[in-house]
Automatic annotation (TrEMBL):
Name of the molecule in the record: SRPBCC family protein
Protein family: Belongs to the AHA1 family.
Domain Activator of Hsp90 ATPase homologue 1/2-like C-terminal: 22-156
Superkingdom, taxonomy of origin: Bacteria
Any Pfam family hit: AHSA1
Native source organism of the sequence: Lysobacter hankyongensis
Amino acid sequence: MNDHGTLIADDTIRFERLLPGPIERVWAFLTESDKRAQWLAAGPMASDAGGDVALHFRNAELAEGDDPAPEKYRDYENTGSMFGRITRCEPPHRLSYTWTDLPGEIEEEDSEVSFELTAEGDKVRLVLIHRRLQAHELLSVAGGWHTHLGILEDRLAGRAPRPFWRTHTQLEAEYAEKLGLD
């Protein structure tokens, strides 16, 4: 399985991972704030379609011994929030929500993140699709999701998580070449 995300449309990127299970454990890492904070971002998340979600990022705290954020992300080194509305919630298999950085201004045209989980023996296949991305977001989003999913895999496997900013910087350069983006 190629770890790199794949553009499946001009505004859509898809990632796939085979993670340590069981499926209920992976679902908890997607939906429970304390577990989600270990790989992505803490914050409240409704459990039904139509409910709100808020993600508060602390990327510099995801692993020990990380590099500082690159200059273009310095203002977001250990801050930043995303907001959205749950568009689909079917535990423990499907979760989707909109994604915007403007609280209270959630619109149907905002980008949308979807997670699909499928049990495969003692493993769980996770498919993440982020839709309706603006062209200027693709590079950062590709490197970001790839890095966050790697940290999720580390956490589920009981390993020390890889450093976020060091990994993201390397992956962003790879995606720039792979996707022909700057």
